[in-house]
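Think of the structure tokens as a kind of shorthand, similar to the way a musician reads notation: each symbol stands for something richer, in this case the local conformation of the backbone. In the example below we present two proteins back to back. Begin with the first one, reading the sequence and then the tokens, and try to describe in your own words what changes along the chain.
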Amino acid sequence: MTEPPRKRMVRPPTGGTESGRTVPERLKTAWKRTPSQQAWLSRQINDPFAAKARAHGYRSRAAYKLIELDDRFRVLKSGARVVDLGLAPGGWTQVAIERGVTSIVGVDLLAVDPLPPAHILQMDFTDPACGPELIRLLGGAPDVVLSDMAPNTVGHRQTDHLRIVGLIEAGADFAVEVLKPGGVFIAKAFQGGETAEVIAKLKQQFASVKTVKPKASRSDSSELYLVATGFKGRGTEGSR
């Protein structure tokens, strides 16, 4: 007695929906990949926020961090001028544009594909010429300064930590120098004593400073975000 033909097993869809994946995927091949690269790719494939980002067309999963922060603090408003520090690959700028911001400028060391109407500057933010050029492209003082900057790491823990803290401080100094009164500064930071020092300085210059860990931030990461609202103006104590 002949057996009936077997039905072809079709793998259920693994992307293209807002809900993302529910069944873990495995890498098809590990050829020419280091163990750390394999681990990163596997985590990325199975990350629900990465799946949602691909489905929605966002350039990075980080878009959902800003979405959560803006849903809570309502800082991205139509007519606002926004600076995006460390914008590559452009997920935060995408969210800002999607939420009605039309005056936005971003900077990164890396090249970034166009995101009209945003002005994109490929430059080192710590270059003294960068800040004035950002304001020139923006056409005036910003209402919001966003910073998702992260330094290139060298693998030496203390050195890498100092670089991270240095970028946070540089972003905060820039925000204080250029923001309109009442403005907002949002920046990626990390838990630690140095972050507490930055928070203390920001509290002298902003009406409210909160630390938030968005759901899209990985649970095993010390990453958090500083949300400073109600900039008091450059005449306040501690301002330059």
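Once you have a description of the first chain, move to the second and do the same.
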Amino acid sequence: MILVRYVLKELIAPFLASLFGITFLFVVDFLVKILDNVLSKGLPASTVLEIFVLNLAWMLSLSIPMAVLVSCLMSFGRMSGDQEITAVKAAGVSPLSLIRPVFVVGMLLSVLLMLFNNWVLPEANHRSVELMNAVSRKKPHVFIDAGKLITQFPDVQLWVSRIDPSSGTLYGIQVFEQEFKGPPRIVYADSASMEYVDNGATLMFKLRSGETHVVDADDPSNYFRIRFFAQDLALKNVDDRLERRSRSYRSDREMPIEMMLDVVHDADARYDTALIEAKERRLSTLHELRQRITLDTIVPPGVKSPYTVDDTSKVRRSLSRIRMSEMSVLRTTERLYNRMETEKKRSAQYLVEIHKKFSTSAACLVFILIGAPLGIMARKGGIGTGIIYSLAFFVIFWVCLIGGENLADRLIISPELAMWAPNIIIGAFGIFITIAMIRDRFSGDSKFFRAIRMVGHLFTFITKRFG
């Protein structure tokens, strides 16, 4: 029992340190990509903090399994390097006795992470989307970014080629205004500036040197091209208050398992309905074709060869009607099978998210199965060893996970196999090195560990070079 407490105590500090470090990297990346625009647009500090806290949920769901692997590598590597593992073996205690309590704690952590991914993470994602929508209504220019189509404005879409970071001037403006009927009105401008008027209720664009292209809704043949030197574009009904509006719609990342299962059952029911309709349509069409062929026989009754001109015309008309019926059958069948494929993809998409919640939670156990024996056999500890060895397994796990998700969404492989394949692959490797640890087949200076270190250094170089 003393040995168990000692091992668990040794894991606490590396786990917390690695959890903080990995989460910090996610935070920095998030700040660079998202909050840079938000902070520069004058939002209150409380709103910025709320955005950060809500997005911290998905960061923790990713960083916790990673921290488990790093902490196992560091702790068991340090104990092996200080000959503590050797002393334990000399006392007649198997290294598996040291891994067993860690595995039990990992099971508890996996269950807690699964509950977190099912209850906390979807709600945090949902509230984050609601908050960002509220921010877009309060400060729509927050989301104006160069090289992206901006759709946050009501009935208006905006494209900006370049933004001057010092003055905020927009260059290469394209505005698409959708009227109640007819094609949109398109405005091109070389540059533009923005300001709020009417106490923040209207966002005014001051366009410079451009053209307006308009098509007459009543007579599409009338096309107008109007050049201007200066023109104002007012976007009204921009609420300067941060008004929260609840959203009834939730994406797959905003749903718990119970809600996603309802969507899967609905998609399966729609698929079965389309399949039955396709079979019924095919049978009824074949029966109709059989009757039509019987009625519109190619050789009319009582007519002898050779055919007359009227007989030949009747044959051609009969064949044309049959051909049109066949084309109608093909189009109807194609639409039905497209419906079936759509529902199948919708079901697979939500099944992927369901299994992902379980597989990423179970990754804690898989990483313990790898980290503990790998640290014992490597006979080296420290943050450097943990990072080098961990990078290779992190990349393998997440590449398999993301690649499997794409394949499952395209119905190439099943969602179950796509989400559990990374755990199966790395878990099988973990069992292999655990058996090797028991038999003392590898050492820290073997070719096996030199290859792992080489792969880790390669991933480190790629991350620094292209990250």
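Compare your description with these statements about the second chain. Residues 73 and 371 are 5 Å apart (CA to CA).
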